[in-house]
Amino acid sequence: MTTGTSSPTGPAAPGPSATPVPGPRQLPLIGNLPAFSRDPLGFFARLRGHGDVVSWRLGPQRALFLSRPEHIGELLTGVETQYRHPELGWAFKLVLGEGVVTSEGAAWRRKRALVQPVVRPRQVRAYAETMTDCASALAGTWQPGQHIDVRREMLGLTQRIAVRTLFGTDTAGREDTIGPAMDTAQAAIGAEFRGLTLFLPPWVPTPGRLRLKKAVEVIDSEVNRVTEERHRSGVERDDLLSRLLAARDEQGDRLTDKEIRDEAVTLYIGGHETTGTTLTWAWYLLSRNPEARRRLADELTAVLDGRTPGFDDFKELRWTEQIIRETLRLYPPVWLMTVIAKDESTLGGRPVAAGTVLWASQWSAQRDERWFPEPDHAWFPFGGGARACLGARFATVEAVLVLATLAQRFHLDLPAHEIPPKTGLTLQPGAPVRATLRSA
User: Fold this and answer.
1) Per the CB 3.0–4.6 Å rule, which of 76, 150, 271, 382 could disulfide with 162?
2) pTM of the predicted structure, to 2 decimals
């Protein structure tokens, strides 16, 4: 396992060339859409084989695929100045609304300023106990020799953590209401992105869209119910929702209830599936690397000596964190990013035509052997620049503390066969991840 510890925060010197080279053969009207839809990761690997800046088409969209970290760094730091985010589809907008992820310009700057304090390190400290309490409760249900579905267990765990940190510990059990609706919503976004429905008008009533509408109704009802309870009680609590309700902008204005709903859903999705997926892949990698698992056990004994970890242990669990970071390199939950060039955009000092869609893939860049043994140069699972993921610290602390809590008590023995990744809203295992529990 490598030990990369930082992501690109600014553009380095441009690479040898930012001149686009042609990619695979394109079909009339639909361009490279069929090849991309069949196997996005394999398609990205083929694009990378053509060069560092490759031209292709997703349907009618003129696109460039970037592989050099220097160019990706320019893209990450150029958002809001040279680039804008594309419309991410009807499903994405229906679920996330006008939250900090989907907003642009002044609206984005206002919302980021309001949401960022909610997930700062000193606020994350307050949620560490919930993270380890939920992990300890799960470990209490496990028995040596038991067979488990790792992905189901990890997603169930992070779902409980997300609900309780977002809505408060008094909402224990509400995950059974909001969880399935969120699962439907996340699946719909992933399916839309891979298929032709991305280009369908919003009024086309596909079966998937009808299911999504019902799921969003459940999500909205649940978030509104808890928000109204907070308004009625007037009691300030220590959960994320209460912090959003208390936030004020420079003019002293609060977030509206609709804005609260959008940010709450964004925080839930960011704190549930991405972390649950990371933990699933971490167990998979540990089962294939006995030496890394032995070092993990040694560190847990030295730092914790059998006690439940707390927030202050996070900085001492260095190898545990490296396992999480290496997992994020090899299996980044967010596996691609796209932006659209504005007028007078440039890349590597060369002009990029306005309207061109620029693509970069964490999966592709972070597995490119050219950038090792210096993996920091091409590590950006949380994005970068001004629009880097606000919840990166929360997610990293959660993954480390949960892994430490569970790994103290159990080994997860997985079959030796390889599990391929599957693209969706996040990078999920493409086959069941089953394990046999063994006492640590």
Assistant:
1) 271
2) 0.90
